[in-house]
Amino acid sequence: MPRRNRSDRGRPVELGAATGWARAESAPDGEWLVRSVPGSQATKVYRCPGCDHEIPAGVAHVVAWPADDTGSVADRRHWHRACWQARARRRPTRRR
Predict the structure, then answer these.
(1) Are 47 and 92 in contact (CB under 8 A)?
(2) Are 42 and 59 in contact (CB under 8 A)?
(3) Contact (Cβ atoms closer than 8 angstroms) between residue 66 and residue 75
(4) pLDDT 10s digits, 32-50
(5) What is the 8-class DSSP label of residue 26?
(6) Which strand (E) or helix (H) includes residue 55?
């Protein structure tokens, strides 16, 4: 009998489990969990909230979300590395 794919939707992700692949960062704008995404694993196009430009597939970037969140996908944002590092010096741009 073939295996069924099981959905993990609705199951909370333990924060401790997330820190195994993400680093914790403390900044004036709060506590964050940040994960680096190498270009070889960047398979989709995202829009950076720092500059409002696209991050094309194949470009290395970072994913950040609030540390007090329990891994909600809705709160994760994909940033250019430079935009993430410069976020304290400038405000996020408006989305189109």
Answers:
(1) no
(2) yes
(3) yes
(4) 999 999 999 999 999 999 9
(5) E
(6) strand 54-55
Distance between terminal CA atoms of the chain? 48
Q: Which of 76, 50, 47, 54 is nearest to 63 (CA)?
A: 76
Q: Which of 90, 92, 68 is nearest to 78 (CA)?
A: 92
Which residue ranges make up each domain of the chain?
Answer: 20-85
Q: What is the pLDDT of residue 40?
A: 95
**Smallest Cα–Cα separation from 78: which of 62, 95, 59, 58?**
62
- Distance between CA atoms of residues 7 and 43, nearest Å: 21
In DSSP terms, which residues pair with 26 in a beta bridge?
A: 31
Q: Which residues sit opposite 23 in a β-bridge?
A: 34
